[in-house]
Amino acid sequence: MAFSHFIWDFDGTLYDSYPVIVSALALGLEDMGLPLPEEGELTRLAKITLRHASLALAGERQAEALLARCAVHASQLGIGAMRPYPGCREALLAVLEGGGFNYLYTHRNRQAVEALERDGMDGLFRDFITSEAGFPHKPAPDALNWLAAQHGLNPRDCVMVGDRPIDTEAGHNAGMAAALFDPDGFYGDLPLQHRFRKLTDIPRTLLKAAG
């Protein structure tokens, strides 16, 4: 199958921002006097969702407080330490050069767009959906359904690209295809048709030729 509309997640997909997320989690745990697990365990939990990580690390009674502390530290750390994955610009350009379109759909706030602006890549996107839009979180399809309606997209021509099951599930829930970017083989057992370790392989494999 081939697609002309590529909807990209941000954290862990276009940008390697997990070091910042894990640092913010660790600082939040320190603020609250909670035990700090190994960094690998923090990453594993954060890659599911931050809420899942907070529940696992702080328990139900303190999870919201940990989420709040994490958000404060992430904001303080800012976009300075966020860097695009190798091949990010090339993958986005390949979509455009092949006659396709790029969109951003992230749970992160406007910081994601600011990072793209800093790195001169915001002009490679047709539209952005960030947390300020207020849509239910993935895997709910609401944001993707809105994007399709807003731009008159046929879901069959769209692929949601992300690094976690909630990304691929959101795509499927919206009637779209889904591709997993999994550079470290983190989800090796997840049954998916489209799985990639390099960003540049995504348009090379999935882009529908113009015309």
Structure, described:
The chain has helices at 18-31, 39-48, 50-77, 88-97, 111-118, 142-151, 165-173, 201-206, and strands at residues 5-8, 101-105, 127-129, 158-162, 177-181, 195-196. The protein is α/β, with parallel strands linked by helices and 211 residues long. It has two domains: 5-16 and 83-206, 3-Layer(aba) Sandwich (Rossmann fold), CATH 3.40.50; 18-77. It has a six-stranded parallel β-sheet, with helices on both faces. Helix 5 links the parallel strand 2 and strand 3 (127-129). Helix 1 (18-31) packs across helix 2 (39-48) and helix 2 crosses helix 3 (50-77). The longest helix has 28 residues, at 50-77. The protein is globular. The mean pLDDT is 93.
